[in-house]
Amino acid sequence: MELLGTFPTSGSPGTTVRAVVARIVFAVLAWPAVLFGAPAREYQVKAVFLFNFAQFVEWPPEAFENPRSPIVIGVLGSDPFGSLLEDAVHGETAQGRPLQVRRFSDPRAAQGCHILFLSAHEAAKVPETLAALKGRPVLTVGESEGFAVSGGMIRFVMDRGKIRLRINANVARDAGLTLSSKLLRPAQIVDSGDAAP
Prior knowledge:
10 strands; 26% helix
């Protein structure tokens, strides 16, 4: 519970997150859901995961306009984060690039982002969004049932009180993304067409 409280707020530097994340972010996979308490805490943890995906995913050079272009973390439609994403990335960089948060209402407008999150409230938009982004170097992250097996790349799953990741590594590879073994190791790897859990 205290670890969650060390994440930066909108006015604080991001150095605290760097120190905490380096040691414990993937241990979050084993944190009991009871630590989240309120949905805000759940999304605080998910915001830190999105920040860390920027550290553990490699995009092809053509995914960026120039060497100083930011890594853009997008949220499509309904946004459960409030300011939590901005808090998680404030003052931070990943792979030498600044991080930027944007919100989108149309999947086609999100084609220029690097990480795109779809909440469970956007489940009806998943097929349209994945079709619009197919083959593009956009890491798609969701939480709706069957997200990864229907062509999304990473799904957050609550499993027996713990957050787990389901990753469709083949879809990520086909989009030109390279996922670190540090990201893949604790995840359940699935493929398109597998039975939705």
